[in-house]
Design goal:
The protein is α/β, with parallel strands linked by helices. It has ten helices and seven strands. It has a seven-stranded mixed β-sheet. The longest helix is centred in the C-terminal third of the chain and has 12 residues, at 205-216. It is globular and about 50 Å long.
Length: 220
């Protein structure tokens, strides 16, 4: 087995979705309607996330970062999971629909990371503007991913690799469709069942480590 891992951030590495947490704290009731439209696949992730952050003044940047750092909880076993991948030379890519200005500070104690793909926030205007540096390739069926996880997977893996996707929500669905192995929780479980995608459920990263040991026949 030649594994390569693509791991989500919000709701996967962290216990809660930080974007939803931010919107509940700082945005108007309109944010809930946009969130539901994204989760119900009525609005593309790219357009939905852009709309969500356009509700927030750029002046809130530092306050949002402080709030996320104070409230984001890292899922149990994540540090050990990082050590496991490093020990066994398993490439690990963090691919997130989240935003760089709060994602990087949360992950900093566990880094350094060279392989993080996420969206970018601009604060030069009155409202926060989201930019998408990792857009969909021509093969992406969605063409509205924002941070296009399937495109990233295609660019970094080949047929000799066993792709492993770890995620929890709608932003991970298209990546899960491409993966050889899926670790899922929360909404991604429902989506995997809806689309007949085989998956392993998990509660923490110890669950994933234990399964990976079985899959690649190694011991910590």
């Amino acid at each position: 087995m030649n594994p390569i891992i693509f791991c989500d951030f919000d709701g996967t590495i962290t216990e809660s979705d930080n974007i939803i947490m931010i919107m509940e704290k700082f945005a108007s009731a309109e944010a809930n309607e946009i969130k539901n439209a994204i989760l119900n696949e009525e609005l593309s992730i790219q357009e939905g996330v852009k709309q969500l952050f356009s509700l927030l003044p750029s002046s809130l940047k530092d306050e949002i970062i402080s709030y996320v750092l104070e409230n984001a909880k890292i899922r149990e076993g994540f540090g050990e999971f990082i050590s496991f991948t490093q020990k066994h030379d398993i490439p690990l890519y963090i691919v997130s629909g989240g935003i760089d200005f709060f994602l990087h500070p949360v992950l900093e104690p566990y880094g350094p990371f060279e392989n993080i793909f996420c969206n970018h926030a601009e604060f030069s205007g009155e409202k926060i503007n989201i930019v998408y540096p990792h857009s969909c390739d021509d093969l992406c069926s969605s063409q509205g991913c924002g941070c296009c996880k399937p495109s990233i997977i295609r660019s970094l893996s080949d047929q000799d690799m066993e792709t492993i996707v770890i995620g929890d929500s709608i932003t991970d669905l298209q990546a899960a469709k491409l993966a050889n192995h899926v670790f899922a929780r929360d909404l991604l479980i429902k989506k995997c069942e809806q689309y007949d995608i085989p998956y392993q459920s998990f509660h923490n990263f110890y669950d994933i480590i234990n399964k990976l040991e079985e899959m690649i026949e190694v011991k910590i």
